[in-house]
Specification:
Length: 100
């Protein structure tokens, strides 16, 4: 079975993704498709309703007239905000400071 150009690019993307998701980086980068997000890239921003967005980056290998090119761009994604159950139920942070 011959490998198509698209399959070849996907094969080249594998080590690129692996570098960002190695065990030592798992706590830092969350992979979503071809993007990687982290609360350590910029400051997470509250979206309300228990959600926040994290900055990240998108990466891919693209064919060009000169050969292959590494494409890296900024991205962002929404994540569930790490809240205590009582904060989540209250809909705000630290509504009950004596309990939390």
């Amino acid at each position: 079975h011959a490998v198509s150009p698209q399959e070849a690019l996907q094969i080249l993307d594998i080590p690129l993704r692996e570098l960002s998701t190695q065990k030592s980086y798992r706590s830092k980068y969350c992979p979503i498709g071809s993007s990687f997000s982290s609360p350590e890239i910029g400051t997470p921003q509250c979206l309300g309703e228990g959600l926040e967005w994290w900055c990240g980056f998108y990466q891919s290998i693209r064919p060009t007239q000169m050969g292959l090119s590494l494409n890296i761009d900024m991205s962002s994604a929404a994540f569930i905000e790490p809240l205590l159950v009582i904060e989540s139920i209250a809909g705000e942070r630290c509504v009950f400071p004596d309990i939390v």
